[in-house]
Amino acid sequence: MTADRPLARQDLPIDTTCLARYLIGKKLVRTLPEGVAAGRIVETEAYVIGDAAGHAFRGMTARNRSLFLERGHAYVYVAYGRSDMLNVSSESAGIGAGVLIRALEPLEGIAFMQRNRGVDRLRDLARGPGRLAAALRIDRSLDGLDLCRAGPLWLGDDEREPGDIGRGIRIGISRDTDRPLRFYLRNNPFVSGRKSLNA
DNA sequence: AGTGCGATTGACT
DNA sequence: GTCAATCGCACTA
């Protein structure tokens, strides 16, 4: 069931908001010596050019430099000292913007994810950006990785129709809070956030 | 060199 | 529903 070929960079929309929507329904595949885990992306957020809520807002630093890579590269950072977060860089090289991957519907390697998370319930494995990273063992060592190449972590296609995509405000930020830059699969149980946000 | 703060989570009432 | 844990890193001096 796992896609065997990564998405072509050429097929990724350059625009950050378009990319965030495009990634809904695509697959995220993690390959380790221990095995393979994969899930369907069901929730994303765009952090666009000039976005006061984005990490690149004040220019390039040691932490955020991967956001400035050409679209389709991983930007991984640690939030609140405990949770790793996976982003996909967007726009052209030299422009700091990206898409936060917030939730997955687990498809493959369920036992591996359960082990990594310490919980069994399917719904809790990758619902939320920190949980997603823990389930797939994503950390800063993957920062800067090309997600359009087969390797330890990559983006794949999914034959299925994505379904009805909802759009709303982003979660957990304190600046630019009103912009509708969050995308999610409607009525999907693996999406994070309050129920009222996901109708 | 010191300070303040998160693109969250899990535990608890 | 509320709330504290926790630490890398950006920012100030």
UniProtKB/TrEMBL annotation:
It comes from the Bacteria. The keyword Hydrolase applies. One of its GO terms (molecular function) is alkylbase DNA N-glycosylase activity. GO terms for biological process: base-excision repair. It is an enzyme of class 3 (hydrolase). Keywords: DNA damage, DNA repair, Hydrolase. Pfam families: Pur_DNA_glyco (PF02245). InterPro entries: Formyl_transferase-like_C_sf, MPG, MPG_sf. Its EC number is 3.2.2.-. PANTHER family: DNA-3-METHYLADENINE GLYCOSYLASE. NCBIfam families: 3mg (TIGR00567). Belongs to the DNA glycosylase MPG family. This is Putative 3-methyladenine DNA glycosylase.
